[in-house]
């Protein structure tokens, strides 16, 4: 397997941006990443931590939510086949108020203070991006069907809180995880729909990648998705 280092990431950066374009809002994210530069890979973290820097403050402000929602790390894993974390740094003219150690599981990044040009009053310091304080990342645990099934009610509830139009959350309430196929990478999570409407909705969102992204935030792993029709079963 290719070593995950900064040279490898830089050489594949355009492919990663193209992969992001395939998901909802992906063109916006890809455009923002065009103004960012990978600067380091910390292999002491598990999974390894890719550090990127925005070249302008508006890129930092608008890209940060997508980094925190793992859209960028998902695209890297789908493109390169290597799980990683991503930390987004502000441009050099924006200074962190305090730089605490990175929390691997929560991945909370500090609020920022914009530096005013010389001779101008500094703006009041305040958090610029609201971050989610609890995240069910499970990078350190192997993906297991039993854990997904045991946490399914809580997973659906957390997705419901973040799903703005409610379509994915509503469809997930009418399905159950019944299998996890591990013969290929990434593994395939099989969901059994209870009704045809849930099957159609989940199939659509599985096709465009949004279902996988919703589940990624809660189970901590990239999965392909397979949606079974009501009453059907897996082939033997």
Produce the secondary structure layout:
Elements: H1 6-11, H2 13-20, H3 26-33, E1 36-42, E2 49-54, H4 57-68, H5 71-80, E3 85-89, E4 94-96, E5 112-114, H6 145-150, H7 152-162, H8 167-172, E6 175-181, E7 188-193, H9 196-208, H10 210-219, E8 224-228
Parallel strand pairs: 2-3, 7-8
Antiparallel strand pairs: 1-2, 4-5, 6-7
Question: How does this model look, in words?
Answer:
- Helices cover 38% and strands 18% of the residues.
- It has 236 residues and is an alpha/beta fold.
- It folds into two domains: 6-114, no CATH class; 145-228, GMP Synthetase, Chain A, domain 3, CATH 3.30.300.
- The strands form three sheets. A three-stranded mixed beta sheet has the order 1-2-3.
- Helix 2 (13-20) runs antiparallel to helix 3 (26-33).
- The longest helix has 13 residues, at 196-208.
- Residues 95-137 have low confidence and may be disordered.
Question: What number of structural domains do the residues give?
Answer: 2
**Proportion of beta-strand residues:** 15-25%
In terms of quaternary structure, the protein is single chain
* Biggest sheet architecture: 3 strands, mixed
Distance between the termini: 32 Å
Low-confidence stretches: 95-137
Estimate the mean pLDDT confidence.
78
Strand order of the largest sheet: 1-2-3
The global form is globular
What is the element string, with H for helices and E for strands? HHHEEHHEEEHHHEEHHE
């Amino acid at each position: 397997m290719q070593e995950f280092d900064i040279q490898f990431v830089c050489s594949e950066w355009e492919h990663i941006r193209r992969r992001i374009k395939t998901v909802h809002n992906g063109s916006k994210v890809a455009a923002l990443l065009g103004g960012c530069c990978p600067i380091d890979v910390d292999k002491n973290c598990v999974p390894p931590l890719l550090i990127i820097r925005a070249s302008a403050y508006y890129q930092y402000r608008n890209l940060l939510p997508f980094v925190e929602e793992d859209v960028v790390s998902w695209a890297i894993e789908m493109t390169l086949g290597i799980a990683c974390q991503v930390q987004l740094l502000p441009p050099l003219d924006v200074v962190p108020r305090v730089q605490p150690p990175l929390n691997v599981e929560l991945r909370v990044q500090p609020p920022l203070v914009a530096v005013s040009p010389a001779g101008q009053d500094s703006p009041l310091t305040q958090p610029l991006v609201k971050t989610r304080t609890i995240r069910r990342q499970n990078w350190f645990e192997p993906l297991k069907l039993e854990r997904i099934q045991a946490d399914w009610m809580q997973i659906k509830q957390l997705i419901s809180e973040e799903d703005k139009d409610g379509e994915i959350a509503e469809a997930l309430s009418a399905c159950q995880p019944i299998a996890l196929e591990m013969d290929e990478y990434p593994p395939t999570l099989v969901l059994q729909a209870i009704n045809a409407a849930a099957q159609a909705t989940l199939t659509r969102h599985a096709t465009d990648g949004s279902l996988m992204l919703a589940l990624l935030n809660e189970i901590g792993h990239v999965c392909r998705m397979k949606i079974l029709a009501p009453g059907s079963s897996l082939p033997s």
